[in-house]
Amino acid sequence: MCDQTFLAIVFGPCDKCSNEKPLRAVYIKSEQLSYCSLCVEMMATEGLHENETLASLKNEAESLKGKLEEERAKLHDVELHQVAERVEALGQFVMKTRRTLKGHGNKVLCMDWCKDKRRIVSSSQDGKVIVWDSFTTNKEHAVTMPCTWVMACAYAPSGCAIACGGLDNKCSVYPLTFDKNENMAAKKKSVAMHTNYLSACSFTNSDMQILTASGDGTCALWDVESGQLLQSFHGHGADVLCLDLAPSETGNTFVSGGCDKKAMVWDMRSGQCIQSFETHDSDINSVRYYPSGDAFASGSDDATCRLYDLRADREVAIYSKESIIFGASSVDFSLSGRLLFAGYNDYTINVWDVLKGSRVSILFGHENRVSTLRVSPDGTAFCSGSWDHTLRIWA
Amino acid sequence: MAQAPTDPSSAEAADPEESSPNMIVYRKIEDIITRMQDDKTGGVPIRTVKSFLSKIPSVVTGADIVQWLMKNLSIEDQGEAIHLGSLIAAQGYVFPISDHVLTLKDDGTFYRFQAPYFWPSNCWEPENTDYAIYLCKRTMQNKARLELADYEAENLARLQRAFARKWEFIFMQAEAQVKIDRKKDKTERKILDSQERAFWDVHRPVPGCVNTTEMDIRKCRRMKNPQKVKKSVYGVTEESQPQSPVHVPSQPVRKTTKEDFRKQITFLNLQIDRHCLKMSKVAESLIAYTEQYVEYDPFITPAEPSNPWISDDAALWDIEMSKEPSQQRVKRWGFSMDEVLKDPVGRDQFLRFLESEFSSENLRFWLAVQDLKKQPLQDVTTRVEEIWQEFLAPGAQSAINLDSHSYEKTSQNVKDPGRYTYEDAQEHIYKLMKSDSYARFLRSNAYQDLLLAKKKVNN
């Protein structure tokens, strides 16, 4: 007969969870305790957890990054411009300034189009926000903000209001009134509150919600009526400089770019970051979705623009030239997505063939940095704003 | 000789200011300037030119610079090279020896390279005291070439008024500088004087010229030490400067914590599990999209009847406002259901077609949920209830057909009403419409007539 050892099972209240269960002896710092088997298991894993040092976590993150790169590289079977060789080359472009809007007393920092395809709102360093009918070049509304450097402005989808903000750390909404007796500033509504400058703002598909980006490193979604914060987006490691909403009718996502060189795609419902891209060498000043919503372009202080595809989860094109050494401040696509217009700090606008990766045209005209650029809602023109105090409409 | 940092990340670790946007540009320009002056590798010819009774030391012509830029930076267009050269001059790295305005001309005009001491990358922010000393010094020297320009004379007068109390100090500093300068070799002085003048042309530009030292306020926070006493060009130590209001001290860099890494690891695992498309598929998709929409892109296919911005005629917009959609517009509705839903006229046609078939409840539900998400927060609860009553409650007037799982989930959601209460249901209905209602719409007589009717007229 073989020796058999019997384990005496003690039954009683667990020293940790107090449940009546079969107990086991556990030694913690030379003290003997009686834990139930469940608590023993939990303690074992928690202990492991605490033993995770900063270094081991960092290593794990690094090795996962490597694995991710490996997986992505497997799908990198060809370059976009190679496949695009079969696409017909674009003809010569004649793009000229068709309108020049003068009236700002200092650097123009931001502009946005109204859905009616001709009105625009622009903001500048001296605190002035102006609404123009850019087709006639008439100024229709003007308001002076209580702060300087109004870095962000947006037109409401209804065309009945504008939003703006900057060094005041806020985003305010002004209803547009045609009553000459009414002072626009009187009906001002403060909506967003950040802890640093407001760098970008955009209405969602409604006058009732605004999405903001700030130098405090966060983005936020606000209810205009109540000023309530609906959702905040944390993840950037530095100032967020730009954002763009996905063009889908059903989508609930947006992309943001920041001084941490990252472009991040967010789920507006949950506040979670869905995808992240980090290939630029410097601040990302501008992000804009490709019209299908499957990709987006970015413009950066590293003097390049890049195209990132969301389905491939990687950068798919770089738009750069040896002779372009100044940062790109603002980018936007033509309606079909074939052309990318980019405004630069060297006062020029470069037009890129998105598919082939080549530069199609360079536009001179501004006498100082181009700070903002948007294509009109029907794609018939684009507007550029500059530190030379003017805005230009090009077609 | 300045060298551009080869590894941005290591440079950044050593000096956070190296990665500031202005510095990135300065280093690139310095790289270009260095190569331009390197005669071993085909740099520009820098010579001493004889002129009347004197010699002009160390100059190069504008044409030579333009040519060098075109050859070495692969610039095809001369205008582009001139523009880049002008920017390099405006930043203060090269300057015309006989002009305060910093621009580059493609001709025999003479230019000189700036001394590294005066390079913008040294982060000079010279105070007015330095400028006063400089202007004062110029008036002490009897040389025609050092005579003050009108705007400089005005600046000097202004500074004399502003610094009335310490003018004696400034005068003394100027005298000291003149003494130091006199000791230098004649040729060296010519060069240094011009470089010093070019420095001030950057920091106190001619009225009407761009001040290239202006900074984007969003990028200012990365300044190395905003509170430090600004260094003087002439070695003058001043009482401590008040902190400039422009320099908002940057937040201390947060160290990455264990929690940060754990979040990163979760995120990375999610990304690894993500199903991604191959580049070839993605490329095909991007190309296909642009090819489909190219006829709608006014930059590539001229708009009909005309582009309002070019012809000054708003006819195109008037046509689009009318309820009669063009054949091209109707064709676009066939590209995807999103196109129909995006276009108010298309949406209207789609709805009417479904109503004619007594199957419009799905689309009306979808539209109601879209509308719900656009409401102000305070109205959300009411709208959620209204939608429930009309589309989902037992015995609802426009009952939609949801599978039991979605229905269960939605009834739970309604108990805590919010903008996303019907998100799940809406997704289901969207998919259903896409495969069913939308496909039928495109085949319908109503749609086909619209699509073809105009064609017949054109033919």
UniProtKB/TrEMBL annotation, chain A:
Residue stretches in coiled coil: 51-81
Q: Which Pfam families match?
A: WD40_Gbeta (PF25391)
Citing just one GO molecular function, the answer is: GTPase activator activity
Keyword presence, Coiled coil: yes
Among the GO biological process terms of this entry, one is: light adaption
* WD repeats (start-end): 101-133, 191-232, 233-276, 277-318, 330-362, 363-395
Please report which protein family the annotation says this sequence is part of.
Belongs to the WD repeat G protein beta family.
CDD domains in alphabetical order: WD40
> What InterPro entries does the record tag this protein with?
G-protein_beta_1-5, WD40/YVTN_repeat-like_dom_sf, WD40_G-protein_beta-like, WD40_PAC1, WD40_repeat_CS, WD40_repeat_dom_sf, WD40_rpt
Q: Which organism is it from?
A: Gallus gallus (Chicken)
One GO CC annotation, please? postsynaptic membrane
Record protein name field: G protein subunit beta 5
Among Gene3D superfamilies, the record links this protein to:
YVTN repeat-like/Quinoprotein amine dehydrogenase
List keywords of the entry alphabetically.
Coiled coil, Repeat, Transducer, WD repeat
UniProtKB/TrEMBL annotation, chain B:
Record membrane topology: Peripheral membrane protein
One Pfam match, by short name? G-gamma
As for subcellular location, the record says: Cell membrane; Cytoplasm, Cytosol; Membrane
For this UniProt entry, what's an example GO CC term? Answer: cytosol
Q: Which GO terms describe its molecular function?
A: GTPase activator activity
Q: Where is the composition biased (Low complexity)?
A: 240-253
Please give the InterPro entries that the UniProt record associates with this protein. DEP_dom, G-protein_gamma-like_dom, GGL_sf, RGS, RGS6/7/9/11, RGS6/7/9/11_DHEX_sf, RGS6_RGS, RGS_DHEX
**Where in this chain does the record put each DEP domain?**
40-115
Its BP terms in the Gene Ontology are: G protein-coupled receptor signaling pathway; intracellular signal transduction; negative regulation of signal transduction; regulation of G protein-coupled receptor signaling pathway
Which segments carry the region annotation Disordered?
Answer: 1-20, 236-255
Q: Which UniProt keywords apply?
A: Cell membrane, Cytoplasm, Membrane, Signal transduction inhibitor
Q: Which residues form the RGS domain?
A: 336-451
Q: Which SUPFAM superfamilies match?
A: Regulator of G-protein signaling, RGS, Transducin (heterotrimeric G protein), gamma chain, Winged helix' DNA-binding domain
PROSITE patterns on file: DEP, RGS
What SMART domains does the record point to? DEP, G_gamma, GGL, RGS
What is the protein named? Regulator of G protein signaling 6
Source organism: Gallus gallus (Chicken)
Its gene is RGS6
